[in-house]
């Protein structure tokens, strides 16, 4: 199939695919059958949100069947395999761990590509490779289907509150057709451009997070070693010019030695390595990102791959042979110390 582009560099669909797309949208809630592949922490929240909004015909698949029990109680149908999802539904969401997992979903045994029905729309919400997203997009077009890369920027709390940001790459008309479901999932939905641009946007966010985390843990380590009280320091800096979403959400967890929850180190390392691979293809040098990647690789090697990314402090403590100890201090003492 030939490639067609408009003046903005976005692929224009040939007439045959435009005609197929016109039969898919607009979505009719009680007629749409939705598939969901990948029921992890975020996938579970997103899928249950769609179910509770009235899209009641849903087929779900997860390698660990136990994780699907909650959604089955809500009325979702359990699919035996990915092939069954492809055969049963019109719209498929994918929310798995890594690009390797996405590749398996599409190209593995009984994968999506070989089993898609004409006119199926697939939305991949995994953080992954823009290069892989472009390949899947083109392979889906060959099957007369449509693909959007739509990773989500946020954590469990923001996803539950519908405040996470969905960043989407792919055909603009397919994006517009999916807006009713996207807005069920979040109040912030962004069309970023052609295929792969959703992933590029999410990876840009991960660069910011990685360097932000280095600044946070180095700041806290410096404050502690210089004799400052960590509680007071965090309180004072939260409204300062160096504060950020990461600072507000992770510093108290670091001070409390709470390294559970949030984005796992093993997944973040995968994100950072994906950015480095893509930056190599673009011919650009990202030295700060390279440093962050090395620190998180060290953290992973120390056995912390299933801890949250705030556990980066452990790598810095190891380098400096120290450990931040939090003093027991009352909030009234913090207020007094700042007067």
TrEMBL record:
InterPro entries named among the record's database cross-references: 6-PGluconate_DH-like_C_sf (IPR008927), 6PGD_dom2 (IPR013328), 6PGDH_NADP-bd (IPR006115), HIBADH-like_NADP-bd (IPR029154), HIBADH-related (IPR015815), NAD(P)-bd_dom_sf (IPR036291)
Entry keyword Transmembrane helix: no
UniProt key word Cell membrane: no
Coiled-coil ranges from the UniProt annotation: none
Positions of transmembrane segments: none
Domain 6-phosphogluconate dehydrogenase NADP-binding, chain residue ranges per copy: 33-193
A GO molecular function held by the record: NADP binding
PANTHER family per UniProt: 3-HYDROXYISOBUTYRATE DEHYDROGENASE-LIKE 1, MITOCHONDRIAL-RELATED (PTHR43060:SF15)
Protein name as catalogued: NAD(P)-binding protein
Lineage of source species: Eukaryota, Fungi, Fungi incertae sedis, Chytridiomycota, Chytridiomycota incertae sedis
């Amino acid at each position: 199939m030939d490639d067609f582009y408009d003046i903005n560099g976005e692929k224009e669909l040939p007439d045959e695919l435009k005609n197929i797309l016109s039969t898919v949208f607009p979505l009719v809630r009680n007629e749409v059958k939705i598939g969901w592949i990948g029921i992890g922490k975020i996938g579970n929240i997103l899928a249950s949100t769609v179910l509770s909004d009235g899209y009641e015909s849903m087929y779900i698949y997860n390698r660990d069947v136990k994780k699907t029990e909650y959604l089955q109680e809500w009325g979702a149908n359990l699919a035996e395999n990915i092939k069954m999802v492809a055969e049963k539904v019109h719209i498929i969401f994918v929310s798995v761990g890594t690009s390797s997992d996405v590749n398996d979903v599409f190209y593995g045994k009984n994968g999506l590509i070989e089993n898609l029905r004409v006119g199926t729309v697939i939305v991949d919400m995994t953080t992954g490779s823009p290069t892989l997203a472009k390949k899947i997009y083109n392979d889906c077009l060959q099957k007369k289907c449509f693909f959007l890369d739509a990773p989500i920027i946020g954590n469990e709390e923001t996803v539950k509150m519908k405040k996470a940001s969905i960043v989407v790459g792919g055909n603009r008309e397919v994006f517009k057709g999916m807006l009713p479901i996207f807005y069920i999932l979040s109040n912030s939905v962004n069309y970023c451009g052609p295929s792969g641009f959703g992933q590029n946007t999410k990876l840009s966010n991960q660069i910011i997070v990685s360097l932000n985390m280095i600044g946070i843990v180095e700041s806290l380590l410096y404050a502690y070693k210089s004799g400052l009280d960590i509680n007071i320091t965090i309180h004072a800096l939260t409204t300062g010019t160096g504060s950020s979403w990461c600072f507000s959400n992770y510093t108290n967890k670091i001070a409390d030695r709470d390294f559970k929850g949030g984005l796992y180190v093993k997944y973040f390392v995968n994100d950072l390595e994906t950015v480095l691979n893509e930056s190599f293809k673009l011919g650009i040098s990202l030295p700060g990102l390279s440093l962050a990647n090395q620190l998180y690789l060290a953290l992973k090697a120390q056995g912390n791959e299933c801890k949250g990314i705030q556990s980066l402090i452990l790598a810095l403590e190891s380098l400096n042979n120290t450990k931040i100890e939090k003093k027991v201090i009352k909030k009234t003492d913090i207020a007094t110390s700042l007067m």
